[in-house]
Amino acid sequence: MSKILKFPKDFKWGVATASYQIEGAWKKDGKGESIWDRFSHTKGKIRDGHTGDIACDSYHRFKEDVKVMKSLGIKQYRFSISWPRILPNGKGRVNEKGVTYYHRLIDELLKNGITPYITMFHWDLPQKLEDEGGFRVKSTSYAFAEYAKVLAKRYSDKAVNWITLNEPLATAYAGYKLGMHAPGAKVSEKTLNQVIHNLLLSHGLGVLALGAYGKQDCNAGISMNPFVRMPATAGSKDYAAAKESWYSGKNELLRRSNEPPKMNWTNGWWFDPLYLGKYPAGQWQEKKKDVPVITAEEMKIISTPTDFLGLNIYSGMNIKEGKKGPEIVAFKENAPRMSSGGYITPEALYYGVRIPAERYGIKNVIVTENGSSCNDVLLHNGKVNDLARVDFFKKYLASLHKVFKHKIGLQGYFIWTLLDNFEWSAGYTERFGICYTDFPSLRRIPKASAYFYKEVIKNNGLRLENMK
Ligand code: FCB
After folding, report:
1. pLDDT tens across 124-166, in order?
2. How far is the CA of 358 from the centre of ligand 1 (A)?
């Protein structure tokens, strides 16, 4: 019998997806236009001109998705609700057909013993709201509150686990600063900081709506994607430097050499409001005229206690103690990478969970996304041997397991993603799924990594044989 690195009893193994990436049916049954519909229909925005119009057609094939999850023993499914399917104009009139779709999905999950984890917002903002200013204006945060209220009232008798926002950092930075994601804006620094604040405010209002209108006691969280920094060596100095570099506003040098460059905030700018109810004082001062308009009441709303922190973690950066503080250690030229270019750094899971959990004393953490894109090939025997992805998961899970040595309350782990799907500006050219989507036929074909995950779930842990 080989040894198994066991995870705690009741550990939640799951997979994640997002509405725009899998559903298709972009204008079916009264759905309103989202910013991703508009963006992908704009020439030159998405690689090869791809759109999410059909995607994996999960709107019509969700029963197949559930069936494949069941066959793999997956017990939790994180999916997102398309805001414009529920509220075509972002607020006001409710689209009953859209509401029904998610009822059918939730019922199908429950019937098959799979617990839903529902993300309220995974980037597909109703276009109508963007036309009114999107996250530049606070009225969008209040529209989100109204949307969250509808979700709580309609679904919370069946679904208790809720994630308000997915990676608000990506919405702000890729969507409003770099213009790489919808809505494709390139706003000023001041507006960007306001966008961040309004996103955080939306989250807080969402948590409050769940508390006020939930039909049972719900679990609310947010999925964040911190800039993960890991010590370059096992020495304690580098660990201290890595920790400092997560939050310090002082290390200009570090931020200047950051990848992607010129982000003007650290993890503290995002996490301190959530957990401490304020923006980091030093960074606030540095921003001078670019600070957002905030009120004390809003800071209270943003820091409303949640039930868990969701973390989406893929890669990290190595940090060492330098002469003037933390320094980035550049990756070697041949360092392992995903097909999308992201570095493969298994330790990112361990430090990425441990550092924020310890800093803020967070009791319940869930890895709400982790995974890798690979150049998968459907072989003529009908199989997909994604051994590089299997190796990725072995290494990342072994690293994640180390958090238990520090008594960190890690509750679950969700693979990104169930099936190859529309990977934002990369269209269908990056495959992250543990199931292969054969786009011409829309068949779902479990890859070797899906069978590997099935074993992990069955054993509630990682078999240690053949680990390098
Ligand atoms: C995350 C997103 C998710 C997916 C993965 C690869 O940042 O939340 O939708 O695109 O990256």
Report:
1. 999 999 999 999 999 999 999 999 999 999 999 999 999 999 9
2. 25
Strands 4-6 and 461-463 turn out to be antiparallel
**318 CB near ligand 1 (under 6 Å):** no
* β pairing state of 316-322 and 228-231: parallel
Q: What is the whole-number distance in angstroms between the Cα of residue 166 and the centre of ligand 1? A: 9
Give the C-alpha separation, 266 to 251, whole Å. Answer: 10
According to the model, what pLDDT value does residue 255 have? 54
Of 124, 129, 130, 115, the closest CA to residue 66 belongs to: 115
CA distance 79 to 350: 24
Verify whether ligand 1 is closer than 6 Å to residue 167 (CB atom).
yes
Predicted local distance difference test score (pLDDT) of residue 466? 56
Q: For ligand 1, say whether the CB of 428 is within 6 Å of any of its atoms.
A: no
Q: What CATH number has the domain bearing residue 402?
A: 3.20.20.80
| Residue 288 alpha carbon to ligand 1 centre in Å | 32
The pTM score is 0.97
Q: Is the CB of 416 under 6 A from ligand 1?
A: yes
The answer to the question of residue 96 being in a domain is yes
Domain assignment of residue 247, yes or no: no
Q: Name the pLDDT band for 324 (thresholds 50, 70, 90).
A: confident
